[in-house]
Amino acid sequence: MQNNRKYLFIGLGEILWDILPDETHLGGAPANFAYHAGALGADAVVVSAVGNDSQGEKILKKLKAMNLSTEYIKTSDKYPTGSVTVDINEQGNPSYEIHENSAWDFIEFSPKLNELAQNADVICFGSLAQRRQVSRDTIQSFLKSAKPTSLRIFDVNIRQNFYSKQILEQSLQAANILKINTKELKIIAELLDTKRSEDTTEPGALPKPDVFSDTKRSEDTTEPGNLPEPDVFSDTKRSAEPDVFSDTKRSEEPDVFSDTKRSAEPGVFSENDEKSLLKDLLNRCDLSLIALTRGFDGSTLVTAERISNHRGFHLEPVDTVGAGDAFLAALSWGLINKLDLDLINNYANHIAGYVCTQTGATPIIPKELLRI
Hints:
The protein is an alpha/beta fold. The chain has one domain: 3-Layer(aba) Sandwich (UDP-N-acetylmuramoyl-L-alanine:D-glutamate ligase). It is built from ten helices and 13 strands. α4 runs parallel beside α5. The protein starts with 7 loop residues before the first strand and ends with a helix.
């Protein structure tokens, strides 16, 4: 049961137009996240930038129509509003051509954003908006300004070649929750050399990371614009992370890594390797939770104490654009309200599944489906 507090959810990063074969929709993972969070009952804010052009004006009008604030969206006279050309295959899965040098590549940090960060309860950010240094520095500064109890969610969202080892490491260090799909897990494992031979973790053991260390993130005096590459696997702990799983009743833990095999995808790990990698990432990156999504095959939520698995729903997809963002909004809503992990997992899959049956990333979700 959720409380009546109005939590502040931030979608930090790109906002753009998704240009689909037959129509155009508002897009950008952080913006999609904020929309769905607002529908769930959060006070949702998008932090981004648009161009001083007709497409930017349309985005601002669209956000207002969706009951989302435009207060933290800057208008650029130099760079155009962002857009992405989206192609949908026969299975409903999208591919993207993301146009460069868009307004959201140049989001500038400000005292106003610093104040917003200090008040945020949930912050969702990804790798794409960090492809240019200006927005990357702003995102990292925003995360450093956040209160220690905030949920700082790294939604990896790897697109094209717009990522690097440095971006992934900085983001993992700043986050306390990671959302990732199976293909992104493989990329991160390879870039960060996650599965090292010297790892001596016993099979089946899932030790709890020390996320309550006395080492404070606020002591970092790195100037914005001069962000060094962190050692994401160092022993230095961040400040106190929120205990998002306290006071919840936990149902019997399923054997998510049983011998029942899912359909194999080229280049994706076996279940045993997947289990090892998730545990390694959780412990060595000081994460409170990892959400691994598998499209229509469901999702796995991993914490230090337990694992929750959901097998997904069999649906007839229209397109899957925005489904992951809806999943993450529902997941975040459940976590901030300290709901049971299995309940959260089921709820997030229901919300994401519905989005897959609609066109575009931000459909109106029926009120009966929003109830948890």
